[in-house]
Every structure is written in C-alpha cells, then in structure tokens.
Amino acid sequence: MVMIPQLDIDAIRSQADIVDVISSYLPVEKKGKDYRCICPFHDDHDPSMRISVDKQIYKCFACGAGGNLFTFVQKMEKISFPESVIQVAKMIGYPLYVDQNQFVPKASPFDPLYKVLKTYFDYTIYELGSQEGQAAMQYLKSRKFTPELIEKFQIGYAPSSRMQAQYMTLKKLPVNALRDAGLIRPGNDYGSQSELIPFFYNRITIPIHDDRGNPIGITARCLPSDQGSDVPKYINTTQTPIYNKGNLLFNYHRAREAARKNHRLVIVEGAMDVIGLAKAGIDEGVAALGTAFTHEQMQLIRRLNVPVTVFYDSDPAGQKAAWKFGNAALEAGISFTIVHQSSGKDPDELFISYGAKAVHKAIEKTIPFVEFAMNYLQSEYRLENYEDKKKYAEIIAELIQKTMNIHEAPAYYQKLFDLTGFDFTNTQDAQKQRRDFLRFNGRGKKNTKQRIVLPEVPAVENGRFKAEKAALCCMLASEQFAQTFRDEIGYFSDERAQTLSLYIYRMYREDQPSPDHLMAEIEEDEVRNLLVDLIAEDPVISEEYFHDCLLKIQEAMITDQIEQLNHEIQSHPDEKHRMEMVMKKQELIIRKLELRTKKESQEWKL
Predict the structure, then answer these.
(1) Reported pTM
(2) Which domain holds residue 206?
(3) Is residue 223 part of a domain?
(4) What is the C-alpha separation between 439 and 469, in angstroms, rounded?
(5) Cα of 361 vs its chain's centroid, Å
(6) Which residue, of 339, 379, 479, 600, is most buried by count of CB atoms within 10 Å of its CB?
(7) Cα(169)–Cα(334) distance, rounded to whole angstroms?
C-alpha cells in the first residue's frame, strides 16, 4: 500500500473543505451554520445527512453513516484511504507527489476473472488486426471508427469458435475462470478430451468495465454478413459473479471525469451510441445495457451530481425507453432533460450522416420531461376518447406539479388546457404549487417513504452505553484518561466501543493522538460511525466528568452482576449455593452504595 506522509494528509485536510468535497458529488443545502443533503448511502428522499462545517464531518441520522471528507470520497468511489487522499488533493490542487509504483492492489477473489478477461481482450484486439478480422475492420472503418477510437474502447474481434478454443488451450487459461467470466458456455464439465465452447465468436467485441475500470464482460455485435432474423445483432455477457447488467453503466469509468468537467452526463441506448458520441468528441456518454434502469444505476448517475441529457432514438422503442427512464429518474431525484430531434437517427448514425456538429446541435436541443410526456403519451392515449383524455390530463398535471416551479407551471397548465380542455389552474394542487414544489426539494419526489434505520444504530441507548460513549470522549482527549480507564475498568460492554478503545490505545502507542488520524485507521464502518458520533457530541472534558463516567460504568457493571445473581438464586436447586449467592449479592449492594457515596463526596482523584 502506498504511504502518504502524515504532514501531507494533514495539510490536505486543513486546506480542503468538506462542504466543497461533498457538494462536488451531491446538491447540498445550507441549514443554519451547517449543511444538509440527501444521503447517498441508503435510499434517502428526505435530506438525512448533516455536514458540520466546524467539525468537518458528515453524519446521516437515518442510516448512521458518518466520517470526514476522506472517508466520504472513499465510500463514494469505493477506493482505499490513500487513493481518497490523492483524489481530494487533485480536487483542491494540492501538489502531492506519489510514486505510483508503491501501489499494491488489494487482493480480490475476482482477480482470476479480471485477469482472464484482460487476456481475452488482448487476444481479440490482436485478432481484429489479423487476416481473420479483416471483414470486421472494414465494417468499423465504414462506420468511421478511427484507430484511436478502436484503441480507446479496446474493440476487438472474436474469431471462430475453433480458433478461440485452440488459443485458450494453448495459453492454458483456467477453465473455471473462463466459465465464471462468461467466456465459455456453461453446463459442460469440460473434461480433458472435450473442446472448449466459446460464448462469443464471429463477432466484433467491445469490453465492459465496472465503475472502477475492472474488466467484467463483453457486448458483441455480429457482422453485417451474418445478420439475419435468427442471429441477434448484439449479445452481452450473461450474469456472472462480476457481471450484473443492472449494477453498471457502460463507459461510466471513462465518462465520470468528463461529466464533472463538462457538467453534463449524456445517456444513450447502447454501447455503439456511446462510441458515436465519442466520435463527435463527447466523452461523457453512458448507456444501460438493458431497457429498464435500476436503483443501482440511478445511484451511479446521482453520484456525479451533474445535469443529465437523455438522447434516445425517436422511434417508438426509443421513446418508450425515454419514458421509462424519466419516471425512474424522477423517483431517484435526478435532474434531466430529453433531446428533441425528429431525424430518427441515433448518435452514431447522426455522426456518420452529418458529422460532429450535427451531434452537438442535437444534444443542445432539449426539452423538459413534461413536454416530452405531452408528446409521447398522445400515442398511448386516444384524446378523442373522454376517459383516455381525462387520464392523460391527470398524468400530465401530476408531472407539472412535481417538476415545474411556480413560474414555469402556468404555461404548461395552459398547454394542457389547449390539448384537453381540462383546467387544472384552479385546483387545490395548483394553488399549492409552490409549497408542494419545495416539498419535492426540487427533485421531483415527494417524501412518502420512511427513513431506513440500520441495525448498527441503536434506537435507544441504555445508561451504560451512554456512559461508555462519554468515557471514550475523555479517552480521545487525554492519554491519561485512556490509561486510567484501562486500569480501572478494562473493557466496554458494547462491541463497537471496545473495538474503538483498542484503536485509541494504538493511537497513543504510535504517538499520533489525532481523531482525524484515527478516522483513517478505522476499517469497520460501524466503529467509524461511532467515532463520528463522539466528535459531534464534543462534551466539556474534565477530571470530574471522567470520574462521573467511571462511576456510572462501575455501577452499571454491579447492577448487571446483581441481576445475574438474582437469576441464579431463583433457579439453582442447591440451598447452600443459593445462600452463597445471597451473600455475594449483599456485598455487591454495599459496593454499589459505596460508589454512590464516593460520587457524592467527590473524593475521586486521578
């Protein structure tokens, strides 16, 4: 693992602002002296995350997630702590030198699958330039694919099944890895005498990566000469341990930086459309490799915190897909507009026919979802039929209410009236347009869902846990308090608190007494969240306060012991043993009274 000097980490932390970092991913809203936003770590619709400017921490009061600016980037990007430091340094322009050779990637159980896919990609790239791939190369050239574009997207050619089987055998590629990566047909034990059966053959191949850039699958197009009613134009990797089409967006790992730079994400229908955008110099294009967008894909889009442009075909299938996306995007609280163009061409066809300027011009001509819906739903409802017209009007009126503000809504209500004769401007909903719009947080989604509370956040804290949290605050403030707790009490009843105490002891042993340093060291989310709670509470630490914590914990420990003895006294069959337990109980009661007397007399000295 790369080592970044602590001085650099501290300097980056002091120069960066957590509000700026989080707002580069999510819209934030000022609330008093602090900020709030939708929590990206659970299905949140009512802003549950609070960002403290003074303490430079974030905390979700629904799911319990919390940390500092480094841990936020770490969780959002699913990267290591050193990588998050490097990312924040780039955000603020801090001159951090890191020797990339120091990076040692963390081992993953999927490494064999990534490795075999990378080897396969290299093989298909080689075959595209060979005699076998000549027809595929000619087709790509006819579609205006440049050598640079082919290299960027790692486009290749999967030759005949027999040629691939020979290559896989010659290279001694592991059969299990080939099968689990979706490169050979499942359902065959592939004994020593059986020939491997590749999944892709006689097709142009385009690699698919996850959001971290790991190779996970392939989308493959047949050659025009093979295209027919019984041959699908495209086939994708089937679901594997690393490939789930509902969890990814094609080209997301490349488009992410371009989207943030250009403040726009363009969503198209397929991989070839993404490449069509790239031909025109638009690098912020992504595609879902399926018709319906999932919650996971919406989270990837929302993570970028940029406006979205939807560029689907103008044919019925494309318009239906745009309608589905629009409803899913509203549910997820994503701001978007839809390209309005009547050419009937997708981005790739548009580039081939009219060039890059035509693609840019098309993308700049967008309309709100309400306007798109007004046009699209006229093909779904017969407006000459009263019931259809009423249903159409109700759907559009609801979209106006959800997505338009008080200044935009009247014009669309008028359009709706002109189309249907239904007037919604005097309804109760329209009169409350502004208030309702604010309740949607400008995100098109009313707060109808309850917050999700994860088990790691206790709904009610008992007295002992409260005292233990207070003791941990003292231990964070003073090494002497930490040593005294270890000597006087020794352990915490709460597992998270006990784990955090071990981190605190190590922090002092390593002579780095800083909660920020501790935040970076903690690997367990629930323990880090507890540390955030302690930093947020920030009590006034004193010897008297610490003394009171110890007494409360000791008293709670004795109460627990008394309860155990009560149970044993009631259940044990031997009378002599029960009497011994009664005597022990009396001793504990006396000890408990002594503790209370000690507390009242304030005799405690460190």
Answers:
(1) 0.68
(2) 111-243
(3) yes
(4) 36
(5) 32
(6) 339
(7) 48
